[in-house]
Amino acid sequence: MRLPDALSRTPIDIGFLRACPDDKILHDCRWEAFRASGPGGQKRNKTSSAIRLTHTPTNVSAIANESRSQAENRRSALRRLRHRMTLELREAISVEGFSTPSWFQSLCPGGRLEVSRRHELYLPAMGLTLDVLAPCGWSVSEAAKTFGLSTSNLVKFLQNDEKLMARVNEMRLSAGLKPLGTN
Prior knowledge:
mainly alpha, 2 domains, 9% strand, 9 helices, elongated, Double Stranded RNA Binding Domain, single chain
């Protein structure tokens, strides 16, 4: 996938980016510490524990400020950054001749996509699902056929992540389709 020129001058391999270990992602990030607003008392108002993490090649960013610990907020910001990158960055896939990768098939015992949000392959599975939905015109039934899954199984996978579901519904609306229901 090639990002708009305003964001990057060189193509970025989205599949590679999704599989990168955290330290490689952090190498390309800019982070800022700042004081979080809101409740939390004197400690919160005096320390710069909130973190904004920006992946400079893609200009995708995430913020974490729940904890009084800067280190904990850095970990949370990185998790959110990776999730947001997966939601926003698409890898061009041709549905014609598409074959489901073996790592994805390993997440589908008995023909059902079953992967916990804590599983190391959750974000790659989420990204591949979105990558397949895009050329299918955001039709969940067409994407499910491409993967060899049932439509209801794929919908349940999407419904397990509120932000994933919101992104799919946003794209379905822009394609002239009705939004999917939530759990």
